Amino acid sequence: MAAMGAHDLDQLAPLTAREISDRRKTFSRFWTEPVLPTTFFRAPPTRAALETASSVGDPALFDQVRAAQPDESWWRVDPTPSQLPANLTHSALCTSSPVHEAILAGKTHMLRYLLDLGYSPNILSLAAPTRCLPPLTAAIAFCIPPNLEAYNILINHPMTNPALRTPSFSIHTLHFAAARLDLPLLQQINNGPRSCWHNFPRPHLAPHRRTPFDDDHINLFAPKIFSSIHDVRTLNAKRWTPNRLRVRHPARRIHRVLPPLCEETSEDEEDARKQAEMVLWLLGSGTQDVGAPDVYGNTPLHYLVSAIRVDEELVGRVRASRGGGEEVWRESMNELGYTPQELWQDGRMAVRQDWKSFWTVE
């Protein structure tokens, strides 16, 4: 592992070939592992006393808990070490922190109080390396709507590292803003203090500002598309799971009437409008290269033509964009050897059915 500088945090470890292979068997959130262990928990996540007190937002209560001298060492060290300590502490084993809990609860006065106490604005909960977000990123990714007050407090703190990314997947705050398809938010972050847009990092996985929201927005009925697309941009960390295609196999079918796949919703039109706006701005501003591939070899055009409802106008404009859009359309192959043009043709020929032989049966 490379050494960690004061203003950077390398991955805990690169994604292994097996981990990448596992992602090819299903659909995953772009920012984390295929299956979150907490997805099927009925109880709320376990939190340390200081984390719970922070979420309440009462500094006096927090001080009362803190007077008992619970461990808080991991949350006060800055920058976060690149690995867990040899002598594990309670705070190092927590999957959140008082700073994160204050942000998620919308208690910005508590956030200020914690920073004044010397809590790090760059805490990473490495006990959960595939789903730990820096506080700055959590304010954008996990708050609905984004907690801009907390974001502004953090971005103006002299110790905050605005270039910090998540371990393992190398996801940056700007990637989450783009995944929300919130162009004003993305521009606000870019134009704000300490912008790191000039060093906009590429994530190790899908270029998610044009990935489908979830697998209901992918053309699951086209074999080349089905085998090429693996990541979605939903930020739902609690309830979303991929469609259980295996239950549709005739030999396993329990119910006569199967729930429909890829049905259009009332939000789809607005989502498509925002996606087009985001994609065209990223390409037009020079932020995104039309031919930039992700770890699967997919370019923006691969993703756009893999949608269950392809925006033909947007595809045409991306093909016509400067930087070789038409060349990418005809010649840029993903890891399976498919060009955007081939995926587009595959999608047009696809027929909707309750079962497809190429769907994996586990």
TrEMBL record:
<protein>
    <recommendedName>
        <fullName>Ankyrin</fullName>
    </recommendedName>
</protein>
<dbReference type="InterPro" id="IPR036770">
    <property type="entry name" value="Ankyrin_rpt-contain_sf"/>
</dbReference>
